[in-house]
Design a protein that fits this description.
The protein is mainly alpha-helical. 70% of the residues lie in helices and 3% in strands. It has one domain. Strand 1 and strand 2 form a beta hairpin.
Length: 242
């Protein structure tokens, strides 16, 4: 109990600013999960879940260890949603990796080294649904978050929540576009977190914004390579029907 209490209270002083070690640790796990996702590793999901649990205690500070900073209900709520969607993604990627040895028999390109996902573009219908869900989710959640006392501007918190859920779901499905959703989340998230005093997470968002652009082009190249392999072998690209 003493160790847990010390962890909840531990802070890092940088100039006149104090950062919670929990916030730093949670974001490090998040970055590790993103790196694993870019490399298509199944371990990205459980690592991300650990970071989500840690960050949940940060954004609901009044519930766990009061820090004087406002609760971020959208940020806290998205950690819960992350965990739920991550369980789905974890299972989906595990199943894909298990099928890696048999995909050629299914008429699809086999995963070199048994990767857990084959990046592919979402269909036009899926893209439209993503846009509608992004706008609709933000509009629907804004009055709810406002009623619950979320940090203003409340629409930004709702935007971050909705985009984060959609991006995580897109990663689970293997859609290349999921990286671009993260970019949209980061653009709104950085100024909101800075204004609320969550400097470690804001810095993470800024770094992650660059990282997501790199990840987008990495998955795009993987998709082009697998498409070329499929064309050369007369096979169906893996993931094209999902």
């Amino acid at each position: 109990m003493d160790f847990i209490h010390a962890l909840f209270e531990a802070k890092l002083s940088i100039g006149d600013q104090q950062l919670l070690w929990r916030e730093i640790i949670g974001n490090v796990f998040g970055l590790a999960s993103a790196l694993g996702g870019m490399r298509r590793k199944v371990w990205a999901w459980p690592v991300g879940i650990v970071g989500n649990v840690v960050l949940l205690t940060v954004f609901l500070s009044s519930w766990f260890a009061p820090t004087g900073r406002p609760d971020m209900l959208g940020q806290a709520g998205r950690q819960v949603m992350f965990i739920a969607v991550s369980v789905y993604g974890w299972q989906r990627w595990r199943e894909t990796r298990k099928r890696a040895a048999d995909v050629r028999a299914d008429g699809k390109v086999p995963a070199a080294g048994g990767e857990a996902v084959h990046p592919h573009w979402a269909s036009r219908k899926q893209r439209l649904l993503l846009v509608v869900a992004m706008a609709g989710g933000t509009l629907a959640l804004t009055p709810l978050f406002n009623a619950l006392g979320s940090f203003p501007p409340v629409w930004a918190d709702a935007w971050i929540f909705t985009g984060s859920v959609l991006a995580t779901y897109g990663m689970a499905r293997g859609w290349v576009e999921f990286w671009l959703i993260w970019v949209a989340v980061d653009i709104v998230g950085v100024p909101l977190l800075l204004s609320a005093g969550y400097y470690a997470t804001a810095a993470m968002y800024m770094f992650y914004g660059v990282f997501t652009i790199v990840g987008f082009f990495v998955w795009w190249r993987i998709n082009r390579r697998e498409q070329a392999d499929a064309a050369a072998g007369g096979l169906q690209p893996a993931g094209s029907a999902s």
